[in-house]
Write a structure and sequence with these properties.
186 residues, mainly alpha, 72% helix
């Protein structure tokens, strides 16, 4: 029985990895469950059994493999520095997955179905947890501004490779970003 559970978990992960690769290469509308199943080496019915629909599979890809996005040990006081470290990490744990997720979001954001899924998933997994750390009636606005800074700096640094941010001293960039995140969250 344990072999079967391991195989089910491995099959599910293979389908998820194939979907991640497909959504990285093409927009949501251009990706079919048959393509994903073929890439994973399984029957298309199995993708439905594990994920239900393409939309649910897309949600899983956006959630990622590491569990919670926000480190549960981070406090409101730690948040500016934590976000700055996240924005300036190079080849650190999870950086590739975060960049891939951002690329998937950008690739599919202009289409109605994935755009709504992105909004819902982002709110549930990123915005709401950050806003929950903050106090005051405008916690969601503060969190939104800080997260827009994070996404913008990540796009410039890693996806576009804009100089000098892409190659600047991580310590200096982290100090500046910490100040900006502190202001956004104040």
């Amino acid at each position: 029985m344990s072999t079967r559970v391991k195989n089910a978990a491995a099959t599910r992960e293979n389908i998820l990895a194939a979907a991640r690769r497909r959504f990285l290469q093409e927009s949501y509308e251009n990706v079919g469950l048959r393509n994903i199943a073929a890439d994973a080496g399984v029957d298309v019915a199995l993708t439905g059994r594990y994920f239900g629909s393409k939309e649910e599979l897309f949600k899983e890809v956006l959630r990622g493999t590491r569990g919670e996005w926000l480190d549960p040990t981070v406090t409101a006081a730690d948040l500016p520095e934590w976000l700055a470290a996240l924005a300036t990490q190079k080849h650190g744990p999870g950086e590739r997955e975060n960049i891939e997720r951002l690329l998937i979001i950008l690739r599919s954001a202009s289409s109605p179905t994935p755009a709504e899924v992105v909004r819902q998933t982002f709110r549930a997994n990123v915005l709401d947890p950050v806003a929950a750390l903050l106090s005051g009636p405008d916690a969601e606005t503060k969190a939104s501004v800080a997260l827009s800074l994070l996404m913008g700096s990540t796009i410039l640094r890693t996806i576009m490779g804009v100089e000098p941010l892409a190659e600047c001293d991580a310590g200096a960039a982290r100090a500046r970003l910490t100040a900006l995140f502190s202001a956004a969250l104040a």
